[in-house]
Amino acid sequence: MSEITLEKPEPAVPEGRPDALELAISGMTCAACATRLEKVLNRLPGVQASVNLATERATLHFTPGTLTIEAAKAAVERAGFAAAETGALQREQTRARHEAEWRLELRHFWIAALLTLPLAAQMPAMFGLWPMAEGQHDLVPRWLQLVLATPVQFWIGARFYRGGWASLRGGSANMDVLVALGTSMAYFYSLVVTLADRHDLHVYFEASAMIITLILLGKLLEARAKARTTAAIDALLRLQPRMARIERDGEVVEVPVESLRPGDAFLLRPGDAVPVDGLIENGASALNESMLTGESLPVDKRAGDTVFAATINGEGVLRCRATGVGASTMLAGIIRLVEQAQGSKAPVQRMADRIAAVFVPAVVVVAFVTFAAWWLWSGDFQQALINAVAVLVIACPCALGLATPTAIMVGTGQGARAGMLVKNAEALELAERIRVLAVDKTGTLTEGQPAVTEVRAVDGWTRDDVLAIAAALEQSSGHPIAAAVVAAAREAGAAPADTDSVRAIGGKGVEGRVRRVGGWAEVVLGSPEFVASRGAAVPQPLLAELAAAGHTLVAVACDGRLAGLIGVADRVRADSAAAVARLQAKGLRVVMLTGDHPATAAAIARETGIGDWRAGVLPGDKAAAVKSLAAAGERVGMAGDGINDAPALAAADVSFAIGVGADVAVEAADITLVRNSLHGVADAIDLSRATLSKIRQNLFFAFVYNVLGIPLAAAGMLNPVIAGAAMAMSSVSVVSNSLLLKRWRPGR
Q1: Domain 412-446+573-690, what fold?
Q2: Is the pLDDT of residue 2 over 50?
């Protein structure tokens, strides 16, 4: 694999771009929290904010000079939440905080469960499943019920009061408001009945306590499930070794990876994980790069090749020099891109956000109407109260808020494991909708490096003789075609002869003297037209035959007579034809855009199975070509790798940068394919379809849950305890459904 350089990670204002900031948020409990915080941040001058509930991140884009980290944190705190800067250290601190919170939540759950268990023991009797004496309402004395329920309500459940108050103070309402309101109604009604010694009326201490306990259980399960959605980043972080081997004073010593700097030499033994990106100085080996590219086959490496942090060395011993350390490694760039994608919002989530913004106030209104209607219709205050509590408890917007981001998190994580780096959720959503894919030729369909594919010797010359005298003139040139000729001569064992008076003719060729047996010979090399102008006749039938095959032709003449023709071509990647066929099978029209000669373009199109191609397209015209393809109203994707592809990549609805490409192409693209294969585009479309399918399923579950649950609760058909259990499980089911995306694998 050739070298890829991803842009330097940009964690926050001090180290990254001045117009972007990412904050880790704590204290959010549901989609309404994220929506409220987003509104608060968007009120800041010049700020455009996006808040992701699943990743607990807020991304702010702002006009340079209008926002500081302190001002952003203060706005978050005024909304009732806490904020911290992101980064490697913060990530570790967040993980430690989550573990501590998990242990505390688990302890609180077990305390709540122990206090609630005696209250729950009398529920079978309440439903007629346990015989009770006439007029008896309780198996557990009411004073004991009060003692057991009070700590659950006001100690264990204090979080709901705090969260609800912060939400109301911020001008909106969230899930905490619903839970606090519903359980408080049940608790305080039961308290009044108990203090009034009204044994003819039921009390509902068990309902308030069990609702809180079940919601805690749901939160625990949800937290564990959400932790699994970030497993992709955690796995990437675990790949890089913590120690590196370097030479010091003639001895090999181990030092922390953090201490390495660009230019430092490090050693790799068989089986070692590469500590940082580097360049091989001595040795040869095969490295396992599957953790970065998704390719299972080891990649042969020798002196001059690049190694990447976290890849695994094979059997050889390598001496390398560090080129990228810390935040500048390819692995760090991948982690940043994955985090960026997981924190972004897909357009499909906008509808859920709009609903979440008005959902809680609407539920409170429905609960009030339910209470009033039941009391007026039946005259039964208890039944009216219980039905209103059930409405408040079952109507949780958590599932709605988690439906999209959890699927995006798992999908982008799976993509990273398969060598696809998705920059944002919008690209992942749109990838499944593209119907036309424009592809660059050089470096995308082809290997990107010219190679000698044909040598035709004439007039008694041999193939090796032609290569030898051609390589003699070309060996001092840095032109890619010259390098291809020299490499072919080396492979054939044709040693370049001595030269004299070598002179390059700009844009045409090279001429000079070459030592041969019997003396010096005058040799001319270059385009057939240039060689013909120097008096060497070039057979037109042979020219036409080789040109039709798509070769770039180099003519070689010695002492005024043609010695042979060398055909140079950029070889088509071994899997390009299969990848094109796979894309076409998905219903995509593949269009090749190239600046090459029409004959070359036609040959490549035939070999890859592309029926629609455009040759002679200048770099500046590629973007216009993409726009013309989109003029028919279809979504257009663009795959390319070079600097000249960047405008076209930016013009496409969804753009794919082949991983060996230039930095500017990677920067302009929506999806970077680390693997050097067009199959990655087909994989990205498959991943998009799988992820969008999960998002649609999650949104369907979330909407159906509320559409069915709220009317059932309002109709008196749901007990508040059952409603609480259903609410807790709804979020768990959505996250669990998203985790099924972990089964996705690339199609090839």
Answers
A1: Rossmann fold (3.40.50)
A2: no
Backbone phi and psi for residue 736, each to the nearest 5 degrees, phi listed first: -65, -40
**Rounded CA Rg of the chain:** 34
Q: Delimit the CATH 2.70.150.10 region(s) of the chain.
A: 241-328
Cβ burial, residue 141 (10 Å; 0-12/13-18/19+): exposed
Strand pairing report for 589-593 and 612-614 = parallel
Give the whole-angstrom CA distance, residue 49 versus residue 46: 10
Phi, psi of 593 (to 5 degrees): -115, 125
| Count of Cβ atoms closer than 10 Å to residue 269 Cβ | 12
Task: Give the residue range(s) of CATH 3.40.1110.10 domains in the chain.
Answer: 448-571
440 belongs to the catalytic site: yes
Domain 448-571, architecture per CATH: 3-Layer(aba) Sandwich (3.40)
> Facing residues of 496 across strands?
none
Amino acid at 599: A
Pairing verdict, β 654-658 and 671-673: parallel
CA distance linking residue 71 with residue 66, whole number of Å: 10
Q: Is the Cβ–Cβ distance between 331 and 308 less than 8 Å? A: yes
Q: Which helix (H) or strand (E) holds 695?
A: helix 679-714
Given this structure, which CATH class describes domain 241-328? mainly beta
> What is the Cα–Cα distance from 454 to 554, expressed in whole angstroms?
10
pTM attached to this predicted model: 0.61
Q: Is there a contact between 378 and 461 (Cβ–Cβ < 8 Å)?
A: no
Tell me the C-alpha distance between 614 and 622, whole Å: 10
Q: 173: how many CB neighbours lie within 10 A of its CB?
A: 21
CA neighbor of 431 nearest in space, from 614, 680, 658, 646: 680
pLDDT tens string 328-383:
777 777 676 666 655 555 566 666 666 666 777 788 888 889 989 988 888 888 78
Query: Strands, E, within 404-483: which ranges?
Result: 420-422, 436-440, 446-457
CA atoms within 13 A of residue 362's CA, in its CB half-sphere: 13
**Contacts within 8 Å (CB) and 24+ apart, 518-522:** 521/469, 521/558, 521/559, 522/558, 522/559, 522/560
Which one of 440, 465, 645, 686 is the catalytic residue? 440
Q: Terminal CA-to-CA distance of the chain, rounded, Å?
A: 19
Q: What is the pLDDT of residues 264-323, one digit of tens each?
A: 889 998 888 898 889 999 888 888 876 665 555 677 888 888 888 888 888 888 999 998
